[in-house]
Amino acid sequence: MRQIVLDTETTGLEPAQGHRIIEIGAVELVNRRLTGKRYHQYLQPDRDIDAGAMEVHGITQEFLADKPRFNEIVEEFLKFINGAELVIHNAPFDSGFLDHELRRAGAQFKRINEYCAVTDTLIMARQLHPGQKNNLDALCRRYAIDNAHRELHGALLDAEILAEVYLAMSGGQASLALVADPVTSASGANPSIAIRLDRTKLPPLKIQYAQEPELKAHQDRLEAINKASGGKCVWYTLE
């Protein structure tokens, strides 16, 4: 099972208003293991970047001035993702932008869901945690994933974080690696070091039994709930 966890950064919010993708970041999972293969590319959008978008990702037009355009990298990008399952947080946003870029690149290119199945981790998170915040920062806090190094949004960094969140939400991480990962990119990005935890190789968790004061506090709480509910406390009945 090959999955690509993907994120993009853009010049604004609406492709219908001519906004463009300016960064693509993606990491590969095979059988729920991070393989170390990545795709990362900055793109020249040939248009202004909205001030609000720049506040989010910090990418400037000056930085992008010498970067390739989407139609120059589209074949390389599709080769990396083709046939995989794309895992995206708020998939309609990124998919909409990718479809927009593919249409602009030429009639020979199809919609993104014709190259890949698409899984939306925002939908997953809302099903698992209804009524709660389910943005990437909130999910990192909920699943104890360290994102302290994330001061601004970046497509590759967010894809790496999302991969950890997705594995935690869908059953846990599955690999241990200390690797220097090459980045499949024309941007000349440097290799990076990634540490990943294999929970299957950790010692069994220690069982910590409740002490007498905790048991008494628990019983007192059940009695209070039972009294307030007119004897309808299910947990008290089970006790």
Tell me what you see in this structure.
With 239 residues, this protein is an alpha/beta fold. The protein contains 9 helices and 8 strands. Strands 5-4-1-2-3-7 form a 6-stranded mixed beta sheet. Strands 6-8 form a two-stranded antiparallel sheet. It is elongated. The chain starts with a strand and ends with a helix. 28% of the residues are buried.
Average predicted local confidence, pLDDT:
83
Rg estimate, integer Å:
23 Å
Largest sheet: 6 strands, mixed
Series of H and E elements = EEEHHHEHEHHHEEEHH
Provide the low-confidence segments as ranges: 173-202
Give the % helix: 25-40%
Helical segment tally? 9
Strand order, main sheet: write it out: 5-4-1-2-3-7
- Please report the distance between the alpha carbons of the first and last residues: 45 Å
Shape: elongated
Portion of residues in beta strands equals: 15-25%
Number of extended strands:
8
Q: Helix/strand-derived class? A: alpha/beta
Provide keyphrases for this structure.
elongated; 38% helix; alpha/beta; six-stranded mixed β-sheet; two-stranded antiparallel ribbon; 239 residues
